[in-house]
């Protein structure tokens, strides 16, 4: 139950959505784009989110696509994680997304919602970071296609009133060998302690990590260390651990030291899975 | 507060209800329609006690705005009539206090419809969405498998 | 035996699978006001100011209760203001209560109440609370009204101390050749019943106070509200429909008091208070934490000669039921072992944590973790098989308990038999460790438990039976259907005694304290035992009445009559007789004359010979019988990551008599599940301000489907002679040994002694790192 009410709009075109936002924003209604809406509902009920106008973008055609277009796979931002999993067009995404929340919730949580979430795990972004994907963004100045690396730094840097519409991923990344694993504090449910997604392309291993820092990331420095030829796997992992972004999370899910322990073993697993390295 | 008069298709019946945009589906079906089978357990999408089916898929009704349900087919536990999964829950003692039961059954029901040949991994992936605090889950596993295997 | 032991389908089964089963919050009506609490965001703080002016402006607000000293509440010590006054003592404590027309209005208004706090030093563990010069949680501890057997120590944080002094400690140590000592600690956690607590109250113009509540103790609600507020007990009517899980957490009385106060404030209009999950975790009472130190001495052959035990229970901010938990922990402090010389101090400590409710097992799963881990340490030191050590020391008839009750073949089960059976179930003889490869191993751990039910010495249970015109019978008992299926078992007992079809017995699920005979509280695995005895007595009453009437109609001596299949008939000629439907409402002669009337049976039961404990020595008879059990847990352990999977969990419990096979197995497996969840993942994480950092189910995570192991359940049947058909309690016991057995398996697997819960991989990693 939300302690506040809001106006509810369900535009059918991107332009309409963008204009509505402008209009409602000018009226001071703190409008919010809404696709799965789980975060508004769960944070709103404990007073951590507020809006006076919701713009539900689920009916916008461009946000619902899931198709191969030329050499790219397009995935709409309002598709639910379950829809993406069931279609299974991007196995690394399927695997990584299938570890978010739980199955029923993933029937409501959408790709765009997860990537743009305030809660900092945003695990669905990891495959796109690895695949150098592009994202389609709609705004007042129309649509634009940009490299995800240009707009995702810890979080998706959307301007006020912009909408994440689609992701576009080159098919060679979709076919690449991958690894994805989520370690939790205990057993098989809960937030990640560490989630690692990795893929191998052009003889290089790429990794992206969630749960280590208060943002998901892919780091050039980490990958350079991991791919250093002529070094033992242990030395490569040590090298990667030495160049991690900061800060390392230290919370009820796990201490910073323990997270590093977990990450170390997971990176070893990445090398074992993708680089044929055998340890022990 | 803006009131929306909307039409909902619930358990194959058309209902016209006045709701606020911020009302969740759970709030509406319980408070406006008296369908109290779906239970509040956390209102946060964590426990699954409020699970209903929307267009045949499991939905935590606390995570859905009522206005989002317009044009969709909603099925609640009250809409199930003598289904095999209900009978299987009874025979396998798959509930004790019964509070999580409607949500669990609706999730199982949807699983049986969507994946009648579900393997252990799929069953687990689906059913870990709900918490049962009384049983050991083994009883629920037996119940759902007894129906899946029949198909 | 026709019905006893059979897996009779529970009476409310169809309601529960069709969504028709109703719980407190499912009852809706118009008007029904909503109560919303404002809760403390801190563990310990002075309330400097409360500003309600903005909240009052919200439309629909009818009352705001705050800033006033309401009568103190609490079962053992009256130490708890229902709404905090002057200061707050735990994160989640109610500070104000808003009553409004709708839940949304109440919430909006509650959010607008501004409370100014001044932080106070926090007591963040029972060990800290026990230290000299620790900050005081209750400055006026000496002034509170209390029960005779609560022993608070003014100017300390000690809410009570229960002492056990048995035998001669000097002699015990002298006889011992090997000594182990270890300390254990875990924080409070939660019950997580899927139904959050809910209560409604209204006061009618004639002064009747009508309360509906999701409670295990509706009769206690009635008593306490009468007591706290000076109301007429007879005017308080408490209704409890089906309850969505309880596990001890719904035995305390809390929201009922607030709902009553709220209704009173709005002229008696009905007010509902429904906990959010966060409030249910923070505000309502939790699962107790414990700091324990156990020292055991044994001779060379493994016979334990002496035990010295210190329990510091984390009672939280208010003592309420924690005092009884502390006493229960002292009563069975040693675990199920025959030890001649015992010294135990069991302290209930005040801290700035959420206060404690009973939790399934009532101190026993908690103390068992400490005892059973120490038993494994002793076995290790003695180089004796851990199961063998338990077998050698198993409690038996002829032994005495720590409170000096002499056991006999009825009041204690057969632990050695349980141990032998669990040995087979978990294939213990194949060895505790199986190496799969250089990284993964499979490891087993074992444990044992015992438990008596320490309940009030005058706790009653009553049953009323009424006949319907078709000869079927209505059964009314004050036992609350919290999920255990006890009311179905009561029907089975009645069917068995009357030799009739259990389907002809209708059970009233809802409890209404005005018309349902009292069952003290639906706690402590006592429903079947006490309710069952009451049923048997009521059945005798019915049999007597049926035979009286039939004797007259059939012109036969009463002694020649038998009852079976809903008929009273001549023993030597069963064809001559009367169906219940012919006499259940009196017998009508062909000419219309009628004799007799509706047959109404009554039965009540009270446990006999219970006594309070001696304050100096602990001697006394706290409970009727000891149920014993043995356990095993098998895990697959990853030596690199310190992660593990649960493979198998086994319980063998001496249940006395299996009353309903599937229900009993379900109770034991469900309890094991809860025990493993508690042992493996559940805890409150506190910060330095005493705040609980994980009050949601996404951060406080009970076991989920698929994380569970395979469960193995075995029963031993040593009849409890006084129990109905020999039955003992079974609701709690599957849980009790899980923390110990899991802790033992993991300690073996990791090669490091583990002393804390929950047993998460990080804990094991830390222990390994510390050992490096």
Automatic annotation (TrEMBL), chain A:
Coiled-coil stretches: none
SUPFAM superfamilies, alphabetized: CO dehydrogenase flavoprotein C-terminal domain-like (SSF55447), FAD-binding/transporter-associated domain-like (SSF56176)
Keywords from the named record: FAD, Flavoprotein, Oxidoreductase
Pfam families in alphabetical order: FAD_binding_5
InterPro entries in the cross-refs: CO_DH_flav_C, CO_DH_flav_C_dom_sf, Diverse_Substr_Oxidored, FAD-bd_PCMH, FAD-bd_PCMH-like_sf, FAD-bd_PCMH_sub1, FAD-bd_PCMH_sub2, Mopterin_DH_FAD-bd
Span of domain FAD-binding PCMH-type: 1-176
GO molecular function terms attached to this record: FAD binding; oxidoreductase activity
Organism superkingdom: Bacteria
Keyword Oxidoreductase: yes
Protein name as annotated: FAD binding domain-containing protein
Species, as recorded: Neobacillus novalis
From TrEMBL, chain B:
InterPro entries (alphabetical): 2Fe-2S-bd (IPR002888), 2Fe-2S-bd_dom_sf (IPR036884), 2Fe-2S_ferredoxin-like_sf (IPR036010), 2Fe-2S_ferredoxin-type (IPR001041), 2Fe2S_fd_BS (IPR006058), Beta-grasp_dom_sf (IPR012675), Diverse_Oxidoreductases (IPR051452)
Gene3D superfamilies linked: 3.10.20.30, [2Fe-2S]-binding domain (1.10.150.120)
Pfam families per UniProt: Fer2 (PF00111), Fer2_2 (PF01799)
Coiled-coil spans in chain: none
SUPFAM superfamilies per record: 2Fe-2S ferredoxin-like (SSF54292), CO dehydrogenase ISP C-domain like (SSF47741)
Annotated keywords: 2Fe-2S, Iron, Iron-sulfur, Metal-binding, Oxidoreductase
Annotated ranges, domain 2Fe-2S ferredoxin-type: 4-80
Molecular function GO terms recorded: 2 iron, 2 sulfur cluster binding; metal ion binding; oxidoreductase activity
Protein name: (2Fe-2S)-binding protein
Naturally occurring in which organism (per UniProt): Neobacillus novalis
UniProtKB/TrEMBL annotation, chain C:
SMART domains per record: Ald_Xan_dh_C
Keyword Oxidoreductase: yes
Domain Aldehyde oxidase/xanthine dehydrogenase a/b hammerhead, first and last residues per copy: 18-121
GO MF terms held by the record: iron ion binding; oxidoreductase activity
Pfam families, per the entry: Ald_Xan_dh_C (PF01315), MoCoBD_1 (PF02738), MoCoBD_2 (PF20256)
Record-linked InterPro entries: Ald_Oxase/Xan_DH_a/b, Ald_Oxase/Xan_DH_a/b_sf, Ald_Oxase/xanthine_DH-like, AldOxase/xan_DH_MoCoBD1, AldOxase/xan_DH_MoCoBD2, AldOxase/xan_DH_Mopterin-bd_sf
PANTHER family the UniProt entry points to: ALDEHYDE OXIDASE 1-RELATED (PTHR11908:SF132), XANTHINE DEHYDROGENASE (PTHR11908)
Name of the protein in question: Xanthine dehydrogenase family protein molybdopterin-binding subunit
């Amino acid at each position: 139950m939300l302690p506040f009410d809001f106006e509810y709009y369900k535009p059918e075109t991107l332009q309409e959505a963008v204009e509505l936002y402008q209009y409602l924003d000018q009226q001071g209604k703190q409008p919010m784009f809404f696709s799965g809406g789980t975060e508004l509902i769960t944070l709103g009920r404990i007073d951590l989110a507020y809006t006076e106008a919701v713009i539900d973008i689920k009916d916008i055609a461009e946000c619902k696509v899931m198709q191969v277009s030329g050499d790219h796979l397009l995935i709409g931002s309002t598709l639910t994680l379950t829809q993406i999993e069931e279609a299974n067009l991007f196995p690394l995404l399927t695997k990584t997304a299938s570890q978010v929340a739980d199955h029923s919730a993933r029937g409501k949580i959408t790709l765009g919602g997860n990537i743009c979430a305030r809660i900092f795990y945003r695990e669905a972004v990891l495959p796109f970071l690895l695949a150098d994907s592009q994202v389609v963004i709609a705004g007042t100045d129309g649509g634009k296609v940009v490299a995800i690396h240009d707009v995702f730094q810890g979080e998706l840097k959307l301007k006020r009133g912009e909408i994440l519409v689609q992701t576009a991923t080159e098919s060679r990344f979709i076919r690449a060998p991958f690894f994805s694993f989520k370690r939790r504090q205990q057993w098989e449910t809960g937030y990640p302690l560490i989630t690692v997604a990795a893929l191998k392309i052009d003889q290089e291993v790429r990794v992206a990590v969630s749960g280590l820092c208060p943002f998901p990331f892919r780091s050039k420095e980490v990958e350079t260390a991991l791919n250093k030829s002529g070094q033992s796997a242990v030395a490569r992992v040590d090298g990667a651990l030495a160049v991690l972004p900061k800060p390392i999370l230290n919370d009820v899910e796990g201490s910073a030291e323990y997270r590093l322990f977990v990450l170390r073993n997971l990176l070893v697993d990445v090398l074992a899975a993708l680089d044929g390295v055998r340890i022990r | 507060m803006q009131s929306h008069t909307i039409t909902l298709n619930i358990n194959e019946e058309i209902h016209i209800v006045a709701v606020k945009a911020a009302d969740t589906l759970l709030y509406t079906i319980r408070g406006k329609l008296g369908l109290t089978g779906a239970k509040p357990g956390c209102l946060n999408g964590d426990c699954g006690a409020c699970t209903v089916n929307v267009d045949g898929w499991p939905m935590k009704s606390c995570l859905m705005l009522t206005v989002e349900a317009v044009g969709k087919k909603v099925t609640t536990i009250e809409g199930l009539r003598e289904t095999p999964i209900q009978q299987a829950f009874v025979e396998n003692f798959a509930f004790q206090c019964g509070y999580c039961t409607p949500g669990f059954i609706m999730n199982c029901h949807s699983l049986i419809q969507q994946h009648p040949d579900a393997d252990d991994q799929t069953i687990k992936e689906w059913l870990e969405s709900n918490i049962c605090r009384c049983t050991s889950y083994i009883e629920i596993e037996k119940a759902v498998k007894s129906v899946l295997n029949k198909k | 035996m026709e019905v006893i032991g059979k897996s009779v389908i529970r009476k409310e089964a169809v309601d529960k699978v069709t969504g028709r089963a109703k719980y407190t919050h499912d009852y809706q009506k118009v008007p029904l006001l909503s109560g919303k609490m404002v809760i403390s965001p801190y563990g310990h703080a002075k309330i400097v100011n409360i500003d309600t002016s903005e909240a009052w402006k919200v439309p629909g607000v009818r009352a705001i209760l705050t800033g006033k000293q309401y009568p103190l509440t609490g079962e053992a010590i009256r130490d708890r203001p229902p709404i905090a006054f002057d200061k707050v003592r735990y994160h989640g404590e109610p500070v104000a209560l808003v009553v409004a027309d709708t839940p949304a209005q109440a919430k909006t208004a509650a959010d607008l109440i501004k409370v100014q706090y001044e932080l106070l030093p926090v007591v963040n563990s029972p060990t800290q609370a026990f230290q000299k010069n620790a900050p005081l949680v209750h400055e006026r501890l000496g002034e509170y009204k209390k029960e005779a057997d609560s022993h608070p120590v003014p100017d300390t944080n000690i809410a009570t101390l229960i002492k056990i002094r048995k035998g001669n400690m000097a002699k015990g140590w002298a006889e011992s050749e090997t000594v182990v000592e270890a300390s254990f600690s875990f924080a409070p956690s939660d019950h997580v019943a899927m139904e959050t607590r809910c209560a409604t109250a209204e006061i009618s113009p004639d002064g009747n106070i009508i309360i509906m509540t999701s409670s295990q103790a509706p009769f206690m609600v009635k008593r306490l509200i009468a007591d706290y507020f000076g109301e007429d007990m007879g005017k308080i009517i408490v209704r409890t429909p089906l309850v969505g899980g309880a596990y001890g957490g719904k035995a305390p009385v809390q929201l009922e008091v607030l709902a009553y106060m709220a209704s009173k404030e709005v002229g008696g209009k009905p007010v509902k208070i429904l906990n959010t999950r966060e409030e249910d975790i923070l505000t309502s009472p939790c699962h107790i934490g414990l700091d324990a130190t156990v020292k055991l001495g044994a001779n060379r052959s493994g016979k334990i000669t002496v035990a010295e035990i210190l329990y510091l229970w984390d009672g939280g901010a208010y003592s309420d039921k924690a005092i009884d938990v502390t006493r229960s922990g002292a009563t069975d402090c040693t675990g199920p072992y025959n030890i001649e010389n015992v010294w135990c101090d069991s302290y209930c400590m005040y801290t700035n944590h959420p206060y404690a409710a009973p939790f399934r097992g009532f101190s026993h799963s908690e103390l068992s973790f400490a005892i059973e881990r120490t038993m494994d340490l002793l076995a290790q030191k003695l180089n004796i098989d851990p199961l063998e050590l338990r077998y050698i020391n198993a409690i038996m008839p002829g032994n005495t308990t720590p409170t000096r009750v002499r056991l006999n073949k009825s009041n204690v089960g057969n632990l050695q038999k349980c141990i032998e059976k669990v040995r087979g179930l978990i294939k213990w003889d194949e060895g505790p460790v199986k190496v799969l490869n250089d990284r993964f191993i499979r490891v087993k751990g074992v444990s044992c438990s015992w438990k008596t039910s320490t309940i009030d010495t005058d706790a009653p249970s009553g049953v009323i039976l009424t006949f319907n015109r078709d000869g079927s019978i209505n059964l009314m008992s004050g036992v609350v259907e919290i999920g255990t299926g006890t009311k179905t078992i009561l029907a089975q007992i009645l069917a068995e005694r009357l030799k009739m079809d259990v389907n002809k017995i209708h059970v009233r699920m809802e409890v209404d304290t005005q018309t349902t005979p009292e069952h003290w509280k639906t706690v402590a695995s006592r429903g079947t035992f006490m309710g069952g005895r009451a049923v048997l007595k009521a059945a005798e009453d019915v049999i007597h009445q049926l035979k009286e009437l039939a004797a007259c109609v059939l012109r036969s001596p009463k002694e020649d009559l038998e009852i079976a299949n809903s008929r009273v008939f001549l023993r030597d000629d069963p064809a001559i007789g009367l169906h219940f439907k012919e006499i259940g409402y009196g017998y009508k002669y062909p000419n219309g004359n009628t004799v007799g009337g509706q047959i109404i049976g009554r039965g009540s039961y009270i446990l006999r010979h219970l006594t309070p404990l001696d304050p100096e020595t602990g001697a006394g008879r706290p409970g009727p019988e000891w149920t014993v059990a043995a356990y095993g847990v098998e895990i697959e352990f990853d030596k690199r990551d310190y992660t593990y999977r649960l493979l198998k969990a086994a319980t063998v419990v001496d249940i006395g008599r299996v009353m309903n096979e599937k229900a009993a197995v379900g109770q034991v497996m469900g309890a094991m599940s809860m025990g493993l969840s508690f042992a493996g993942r559940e805890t409150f994480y506190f910060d330095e301000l005493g705040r609980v950092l994980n009050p949601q189910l996404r951060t406080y995570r009970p076991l989920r489907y698929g994380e569970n192991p395979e469960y193995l359940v075995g029963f031993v049947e040593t009849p409890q002679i006084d129990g109905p058909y020999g039955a003992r309690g079974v609701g709690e016991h599957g849980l009790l040994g899980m923390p110990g057995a899991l802790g033992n398996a993991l300690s073996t697997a990791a090669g490091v002694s583990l002393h804390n819960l929950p047993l998460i991989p990080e804990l094991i990693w830390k222990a390994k790192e510390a050992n490096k």
